[in-house]
TrEMBL record, chain A:
WD repeat coordinates: 67-101, 111-143, 154-190
Family classification: Belongs to the WD repeat peroxin-7 family.
This protein's name: Peroxin-7
GO biological process: protein import into peroxisome matrix
GO molecular function terms listed in the Swiss-Prot or TrEMBL record: peroxisome matrix targeting signal-2 binding
GO cellular component: cytosol; peroxisomal matrix
InterPro entries: PEX7, WD40/YVTN_repeat-like_dom_sf, WD40_PAC1, WD40_repeat_CS, WD40_repeat_dom_sf, WD40_rpt
Keyword Cytoplasm appears in the UniProt entry: yes
One Pfam entry name: WD40
Species in which this protein is naturally found: Leucocoprinus leucothites
Domain of life of the source: Eukaryota
TrEMBL record, chain B:
Domain Thiolase N-terminal residues, every copy: 56-310
Domain annotation Thiolase C-terminal: ranges: 319-431
SUPFAM superfamilies: Thiolase-like (SSF53901)
GO terms of biological process kind: fatty acid beta-oxidation; phenylacetate catabolic process
Native source organism of the sequence: Leucocoprinus leucothites
Keywords: Acyltransferase, Transferase
Name assigned to this protein: 3-ketoacyl-CoA thiolase
Length: 303, 434
C-alpha cells in the first residue's frame, strides 16, 4: 500500500514562528496558531485562525482567515470546550487573553495575574467550564471564563512550569513539568502545602503546593508532557535531555519504566525536544530543528 | 466592553500591561533569552562549563617535594613512609572526615608488594578500616590512572568521595628494565621492544623524527631555567606539602627525621652550553643524543588528589579547584613510546568536545627532551601555553597538582595534562578550572 501521498497543505506566516497550534473541538476545519515574532525571544505575537478544507485530487487547502495582534509573543492556545467561537492564548507578558472569532482586533477578556511568561493553557474537556494556565513564575492557575480573577493558584514548582495539562480521564488531576526536571501530578481535591524539605525553610514566602506524585523525570529541563488518552495514568515527558520517556504513574520505579532514547530517533537533532503528543500506541515527538521557525514531526514509535 | 477589558488589569499591578512591558523590556528579554538558551545543548567549551550536581570535581591536589633518587631528600625513605606522609597530609588538607572517603586508589609502578604498603599506610595515617584501598599500574601514568579510576567510580555512583594517590621511590626500587620474556612472545618484534630501556626509545624518537642534540639541549636548558624561576618565585609553594622523612647520616649511619620542603632536582644556572658538554648516556643507541642533562632525573615523590561529586563538595562547603572532564589512553609502537601524547591529546580533546585553541595550558611530561620537542612540534602546541614537567615517575597525580596550580596562577580555564607511557602508550586528561 504505497500510494503516492498528496503534498501537505502549506501556510506560511512570514515573520511569525509558531509555538503551538490547536484544532477546534467544534469545527473540524478550524485551526488556531499561537505565533511570535523573532521566535518568541522578543517582540509581538499573533493568533492566527486558519481553515483547512478538502480541495481537488485529495489535496487540502489551507487558508488564513484572520489574525489578532498582541504586544508580546504567544506561546500556547486552547479552544473553549463550551463555546465554539472562543479560545484563550498564553502570552510572554504574563497575560492570558480570550478571543471570540466573530469579533475583530481585540480580545474579549484579559487576565493579568502571572508575573512571568505564560507558557501553556489547557482547557479541561471533562469540567468544560475550566481551563488551566502554567507560567515561568512557577504557578499553575485555574480559570473560569466568566470570572475576573483566577479561581485557584498553585505554586507548583519553584522554577518555570512549561506545561500543565488536565487528565483526560479524571477532572481533578493535573500534570505539570518544569525547569527543575520533575513531572508532577496534582489532585485538586486535596489541596495542601508541601512540608519544607530539610535545612532552611525557603517554603515560608512561597509555600509549594503538595503534589500527589513527583517524578524526577530528567536531570535537565522537562519541556513537554502528555497524558495517554486511552490508558489512564500513563504519561509521556520530553525535554532538553533529548529523551522521550513514558511513565506509568501507578508504579514509578526509576530505571524500569519504558524509556525511549530520543537521541536515536530525533535525527540527532542538536536541539531539545519541545512538544510531545501521545495516541494509544503512537508517540509523536517534535523538536527544534536547525531552523527554529519550522517544526518537524520526526518519529512515531510504539510505547 | 472589549476595549475596556483590554486595558483592565485584574492582577496586583494597576498599570496597563503594555506600559508594564515597556518599562521592563530589557530585563525581561534577557531573562527570557537566558531561559530559552538553556534548551539548546551547548557544545564545545560552553558544554564543559555547565555545572551539574553529578560533575566529578577536584577539591584538593597536593604533592610532596620531588627529590633525586639515591641522592636527594628522600634517599633513605621507604615507599610506605612516603605513602604515610601523603595520606596524613591528605587527611589534614582535605577538610573532610576521612571516613567519607569511599575508596583510595594508589598509582605506583616499581613498588613491590605495593598493595600491602598502600593499605597498611592508609590505616596508620588515620583512615578508618572502612575505607578500602586499591593499587593501579600503567607506568608513568599510574597516578593519573588512579585519578581516572576514582573519577569513574564517582561517575558510576559507586562512591561519592575518593582519594587518588601516586607514589614512587626510585631510591628503594630502581628501574631495572623489563624481565625476561618467553620465546613465544619475544619472537614478536614489537613485544621485544616492550622490555627495552626508556633511553633506547628516546634515541629512536630522536632518529626517526630528526630531533638533534642541539635542539634537545636548548629545550632542556630552557626547561631547567623555567623550573628554577618557578621555584625562586615560589610558584610550587601552594602545591607542595612538607614531608617528614628519615635520613641516614652518611658517616655514622644514624637515622634521624628531617623535613623536606623543596624540590631538589632543579639544577640552578643550567645553560644550553653547559648541557652540551655532557657525555651521551646511551652511546650504544641511535645518534646518542640523550644525556643525563636533557633527560629527566629519576625521582622519589608522591601526590594526592581528592575527588567527589559537585553535590557532595557543595554539601560539605569545600572550595572546588577544578572539574574533572575525561582521561584517555592511546597506544602506539613501543619503540617510540615517548610520543604517546601526540596520540592521546587529540583523542582526549575530541572526547571532551574541544579543540587545541580552547586549551589554556598543556602539561606534558618531559621524560626526554627528544620526545617532548617532537610532541610540541607535531601537535603544533603554542609555546606560551605549554608547561613541562621535567621528571620521570611520580608523574600522573603529581602533574594534576602542578598543572592545576599553574592553571590557577595563569587564571586559565582548561588544562590538558599528558604523558608518555613505557611499552608504547600515551595518556591525556582534561580538567576545567572553576
Amino acid at each position: 500500500m504505497s500510494l503516492p501521498r498528496a503534498p501537505p497543505a502549506l501556510l506560511h506566516t512570514p515573520g511569525f514562528a509558531h509555538y503551538s497550534l490547536a484544532w477546534s473541538p467544534f469545527h473540524t476545519t478550524r485551526l488556531a496558531l499561537a505565533s511570535s515574532a523573532n521566535f518568541g525571544l522578543v517582540g509581538n505575537g499573533r493568533l492566527h485562525l486558519v481553515s483547512v478544507h478538502p480541495g481537488p485530487n485529495g489535496m487540502q487547502n489551507i487558508t488564513l482567515d484572520k489574525y489578532y495582534e498582541t504586544q508580546d509573543g504567544l506561546y500556547d492556545v486552547a479552544w473553549s470546550e463550551i463555546h465554539e467561537n472562543q479560545l484563550v492564548t498564553a502570552s510572554g507578558d504574563g497575560s492570558i487573553r480570550m478571543w471570540d472569532v466573530v469579533l475583530n482586533d481585540l480580545p474579549i477578556r484579559v487576565w493579568q495575574e502571572h508575573s512571568r511568561e505564560v507558557f501553556s493553557v489547557d482547557w479541561s474537556n471533562i469540567k468544560k467550564d475550566t481551563f488551566a494556565s502554567s507560567s515561568w513564575d512557577g504557578m499553575i492557575k485555574l480559570w473560569l471564563p466568566d470570572r475576573p480573577r483566577s479561581v485557584l493558584t498553585m505554586q507548583a514548582h519553584h522554577s518555570c512550569v512549561y506545561q500543565a495539562l488536565f487528565s483526560p480521564h479524571q477532572p481533578d488531576l493535573l500534570a505539570s513539568c518544569s525547569t527543575d526536571g520533575t513531572l508532577k501530578i496534582f489532585d485538586l481535591r486535596t489541596q495542601t502545602y508541601a512540608p519544607p524539605t530539610g535545612g532552611i525553610n525557603t517554603n515560608f514566602a512561597t509555600p509549594l503546593t503538595a503534589a500527589v506524585l513527583t517524578v524526577p523525570a530528567s536531570t535537565t529541563e522537562v519541556l513537554s508532557i502528555d497524558w495517554n488518552k486511552y490508558k489512564p495514568f500513563v504519561l509521556a515527558s520530553a525535554g532538553v535531555d533529548k529523551m522521550a520517556k513514558v511513565w506509568d504513574c501507578r508504579m514509578i520505579k526509576l530505571g524500569e519504566v519504558g524509556q525511549v532514547d530520543g537521541r536515536q530517533h530525533l535525527h540527532q537533532a542538536e536541539y531539545s525536544t519541545s512538544t510531545i503528543h501521545t495516541q494509544s500506541s503512537l508517540l509523536d515527538v517534535a523538536g527544534h530543528s536547525t531552523r527554529m521557525e519550522s517544526w518537524q514531526a520526526v518519529v512515531g514509535m510504539d510505547v | 466592553m472589549t476595549s475596556l477589558d483590554h486595558f483592565l488589569i485584574t492582577g496586583r499591578f494597576s498599570l496597563p500591561s503594555s506600559s508594564l512591558l515597556l518599562s521592563n523590556i530589557d530585563a525581561r528579554t534577557m531573562e527570557r533569552v537566558k531561559q530559552l538558551a538553556g534548551h539548546f545543548r551547548p557544545t564545545g567549551l560552553a558544554a564543559l562549563e555547565r555545572k551539574n550536581p553529578d560533575d566529578v570535581v577536584v577539591t584538593m591536589a597536593i604533592r610532596s617535594p620531588l627529590c633525586k633518587a639515591r641522592k636527594g631528600g628522600f634517599r633513605d625513605a621507604r615507599t610506605d613512609e612516603l605513602l604515610l606522609e601523603m595520606y596524613k597530609h591528605s587527611i589534614a588538607q582535605s577538610k573532610i572526615d576521612p571516613k567519607l572517603v569511599g575508596d583510595i586508589c594508589v598509582g605506583t609502578v616499581l613498588t613491590s608488594d605495593a598493595m600491602y604498603a598502600a593499605r597498611s599506610a592508609a590505616l596508620a595515617a588515620g583512615f578508618p578500616e572502612t575505607t578500602p584501598v586499591q593499587v593501579v599500574n600503567r607506568f608513568c601514568s599510574s597516578g593519573l590512572m588512579a585519578v581516572s579510576t576514582i573519577a569513574n567510580q564517582i561517575r558510576s555512583g559507586a562512591i561519592e568521595v575518593g582519594l587518588a594517590v601516586g607514589v614512587e621511590s626510585m631510591s628503594e626500587n630502581p628501574d631495572k628494565g623489563g624481565p625476561e620474556q618467553s620465546e613465544l612472545i619475544s619472537c614478536n618484534p614489537a613485544s621485544r621492544d616492550c622490555k627495552e630501556r626508556m633511553g633506547w626509545t628516546s634515541e629512536n624518537v630522536a632518529v626517526e623524527f630528526n630531533v638533534t642534540r642541539e635542539e634537545q639541549d636548548a629545550f632542556a636548558a630552557e626547561s631547567f631555567q623555567k623550573a628554577e624561576r618557578a621555584q625562586n618565585l615560589g610558584y610550587f609553594k601552594d602545591e607542595i606539602v612538607p614531608f617528614a622523612v628519615f635520613q641516614k647520616d652518611p658517616k655514622t649511619g644514624e637515622k634521624r627525621q628531617v623535613i623536606v620542603t623543596e624540590d631538589d632536582g632543579i639544577r640552578h644556572g643550567t645553560t644550553k652550553e653547559g648541557l652540551g658538554k655532557i657525555r651521551p648516556a646511551f652511546p650504544q643507541w641511535g645518534n646518542s643524543t640523550t644525556t643525563g642533562g636533557n633527560a629527566s632525573q629519576i625521582t622519589d615523590g608522591a601526590a594526592a588528589v581528592l575527588l567527589m561529586t559537585r553535590r557532595k563538595a557543595e554539601e560539605l562547603g569545600l572550595t572546588i579547584l577544578a572539574k574533572y572532564v575525561i582521561t584517555t589512553v592511546a597506544g602506539l609502537a613501543p619503540r617510540i613510546m615517548g610520543i604517546g601524547p601526540i596520540y592521546a591529546i587529540p583523542k582526549a580533546l575530541s572526547l571532551a568536545g574541544i579543540t587545541i585553541d580552547d586549551v589554556d595550558l598543556f602539561e606534558i611530561n618531559e621524560a626526554f627532551a627528544s620526545q617532548c620537542v617532537y610532541c610540541i612540534k607535531a601537535l603544533k602546541l603554542p609555546v606560551e601555553k605549554t608547561y613541562l614537567s621535567p621528571l620521570l615517575r611520580a608523574t600522573g597525580a603529581r602533574q594534576v597538582a602542578t598543572g592545576l596550580n599553574e592553571l590557577h596562577r595563569r587564571k586559565g580555564k582548561v588544562l590538558v595534562t599528558s604523558m608518555c607511557i613505557g611499552t608504547g602508550m600515551g595518556a591525556a586528561a582534561v580538567f576545567l578550572r572553576e
